[in-house]
Design goal:
heterodimer; A: mainly beta; 6-stranded mixed sheet; 5-stranded antiparallel sheet; 11 strands; B: mainly beta; 7-stranded mixed sheet; globular
């Protein structure tokens, strides 16, 4: 079945540092989504990407839809303690009713 | 705007027992999803409803899992009988439609012992 891979699996950074994480797939996706999940809560949508090559920002977050349609990247600039959590990428294929598939997540820890 | 409501927040049951989870989506959201999230993994879609009809239940273990959304609003997910491997967080999400981003509830954490 379709699978998404995320790297790194986990990361520990100092407050103020920039963060980069990525998501890859063997299949082409029409939509890429990035979510953040805090402990004990459901995932919250951060950024949605709908077009190959698209670069979208949301505050300190920037995400890109890869040209090949098989990958996406998320960058966080000037990290702060509240950025701690698990970041999931998710992809949706061509048809409107295709299910959204989630990656395994990247766990981010920020050291004050 | 009220979010997606789920209950209970936590449930501990013995294997072979039955359990039910409830979800109240955001008002006006036609599409409702149930996801299973095993510890350390991303959410996996179990079933997707459009109003009160099932759009996708291809990953729902139908021998033990069932879900309904009779009036196109609230939904229940049932497991009967539960197995140890069903221990997970069960997330409900809703959206206006399949092309819109959706909102997750806080989930129900199920532990099967």
């Amino acid at each position: 079945g379709q699978q998404l891979n995320q790297s790194p699996q986990s990361m520990f950074i100092q407050e103020g540092e920039d963060v980069s994480m990525n998501c890859t797939s063997s299949s082409i996706f029409n939509t890429w989504l990035w979510y953040k999940q805090d402990p004990g809560e459901g995932p919250v949508l951060l950024i949605a990407l709908y077009k190959a090559g698209e670069l979208t920002s949301n505050g300190r977050l920037t995400a890109q839809f890869g040209i090949t349609r098989k990958d996406s990247f998320l960058n966080i600039s000037a990290s702060i303690p509240s950025d701690v959590g698990i970041y999931f990428c998710a992809g949706q294929r061509k048809t409107s009713y295709d299910k959204v598939i989630f990656g395994p997540g990247t766990s981010l820890s920020v050291i004050p | 705007e009220a979010g997606v409501a789920q209950s209970p927040r936590y449930k501990i049951i013995e294997k072979r027992q039955s359990v039910a989870f409830w979800c109240n989506p955001i008002s006006g959201h036609a599409t409702l999803y149930w996801y299973q999230q095993i510890l350390g993994q991303g959410p996996k879609l179990l079933i997707q409803f459009q109003n009160n009809g099932v759009v996708d239940d291809s990953q729902l273990p139908k021998d033990r899992f069932s879900a309904e959304r009779l009036k196109g609003v609230d939904s229940t997910l049932k497991i009967q009988p539960a197995k140890l491997e069903d221990s997970a967080v069960y997330l409900c999400a809703s959206s206006f439609g399949v092309n819109y981003g959706y909102t997750f509830g806080s989930g129900t954490r199920l532990t099967v012992v």
